[in-house]
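Morning!

This is the sequence you dropped in the shared folder:
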Amino acid sequence: MGARLFASASPLGEQFANESGMSAAETGRQRPGAQIHRIFLLSPANTAGTRARMLFNPNAAFGMATQLRSPRGAAIGEVFSFLSGLYFRGKLAYANAHARPARGVQGVHLITTSRGLDAPDTPITLDDLREFASVPIDLDEPRYREPLTRDARHLAGLGSTTEVVLLGSVATGKYVDIFLEILGDRLRFPAAFVGRGDMSRGGLMLRHLEAGAELEYIPVAGAIRHGSRPPKLEKRL
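The structure's back. Tokens below.
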């Protein structure tokens, strides 16, 4: 399985040459008045927690477990949503609603521990999930770092008219550092994430989605990434 950064199978340079008439070098220079595109990176679900153990149980008979044991598997976005509940469902629904990729480019990408970036509809099996669980999210771990570095460079090839928004924790460097080094100011995150935990971020995105509103994104470079906890979200009536 490899990262699917494009909706078609064209290589990066050929993709942009075919669709925009621009060379690969020209994609790195923003043209005056060019439309700004936006794609999202979603941090991964915990593949070693209680819900993951439910999926690894060979006697589990519920739908997601049986799908993963089948040769066809289940979509990674659905699996991560099962594993993380509200937080991941909020991220995925929000990203699907607000992604504005260039033509032919995948708008939503899931960070994995061992395979770089994957599209939400990529099928995975129980063996794939075991592989994810076996690789730590650690920048000193080459099985994690090298595929993400490869795909970050592919994203950089999309040019300066594409912003990349990370929906995940920016408090540590485990997701940020690789992409920030390669993408620079094009790597952004929702300003309202600072100080919030996973569940609060998930709830915040779902509420903005229901209201038809979009969060404010700011560059990761130079941002205050640690802050006091904001007030709790108001309870729904």
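Headline: The longest strand covers residues 37-42.

More detail when I'm at my desk.
O.
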